[in-house]
Design a protein that fits this description.
Blueprint lengths: L1 H21 L13 H18 L11 H20 L5 H4 L3 H30 L16 H21 L1 H4 L9 H24 L6 H20 L9 H28 L6
Length: 270
């Protein structure tokens, strides 16, 4: 129920943020110096929605935790960033009625979803665990070093943007404010948790919803970056790193789905 509710919110809010950003206008819960940041936040929300819709079909917790745990990181992280930067919200600074109401709804919705996420996770971990199903598609050995590098890169950048936004914001290849940097850090941290979580599971059969959300997020983020390419300093080191890291998400998701489909295909009888 939590994943479905977040998926619906992600489609509506994420679609709005991404669509407005594609027109070059700035819209969000706080003032941003560039439309790209709220557009990327909306793109990430939109890209993860298909994976969240499949969570309800899972039979066991270990089949969805590689997506649900990053989801909790996003909800708690964005709510904390919004509260810590409350002075930047339109509801605090004032403005036209639409951004003010949107920022108020943003804060209220995140708060409710955070409570639901904490209750759901507490319930899950307090419930006696069922025996784990055997691994059906272990990760190939050649993929593990690449996943470790990809996950660590996203995790490290996310941690830096969250902990020291004033310093790490200079490494973002477009103009960002403090809440922008920290919100991007939340999503980067969640992506790192998801990739490293899949590495820890060591089974593609336990990453089904995440394998839908990962390439979906990469595609939607790439679309927004392509449409707002003029705002990005592509010749800088961070710009080139961003391209490689988004491409890494896409390749990891596509390769994972292909390998899982191959492992799940019925084998011909001798």
């Amino acid at each position: 129920m939590l994943a479905t509710a977040v998926a619906v919110v992600s489609v509506l809010v994420g679609g709005l943020l991404a669509a407005v950003a594609l027109t070059g206008h700035v819209f969000g819960a706080w003032r941003s110096p560039e439309s790209l940041t709220p557009g990327l936040i909306g793109a990430a929300m939109l890209g993860t929605a298909p994976g969240l819709f499949t969570v309800g079909r899972a039979r066991a917790w270990h089949e969805v935790r590689t997506l649900v745990l990053p989801l909790a990181v996003v909800l708690l992280g964005l709510f904390s960033v919004s509260v810590l930067n409350a002075g930047h919200l339109y509801v605090a600074r004032g403005g036209s009625v639409v951004p003010v109401l949107f920022s108020l709804g943003w804060l209220f919705t995140l708060g409710v979803l955070c409570v639901c996420a904490l209750v759901a996770l507490a319930w899950q971990y307090l419930t006696p665990a069922e025996p784990l199903r055997p691994r059906v598609a272990p990760l190939p050995g050649w993929s593990k070093p690449a996943l470790a590098v990809l996950g660590s890169a996203w995790l490290g950048i996310g941690t830096g943007l969250l902990a020291r936004p004033g310093f790490w914001a200079d490494f973002v290849p477009w103009s960002v404010g403090r809440p922008d940097a920290q919100a991007l850090g939340v999503w980067a941290l969640a992506l790192g948790v998801g990739v490293l979580g899949a590495l820890a599971e060591d089974d593609l059969g336990r990453t089904g919803p995440a394998l839908i959300a990962l390439p979906g997020t990469a595609v939607t983020v790439a679309v927004v970056l392509a449409c707002r390419a003029s705002a990005v300093d592509w010749t800088s080191g961070p710009g080139l790193c961003l391209v490689s890291m988004v491409a890494g998400l896409l390749l990891a998701g596509a390769a994972g789905r292909a390998l899982l489909a191959k492992a799940s295909a019925p084998r011909p009888r001798p």
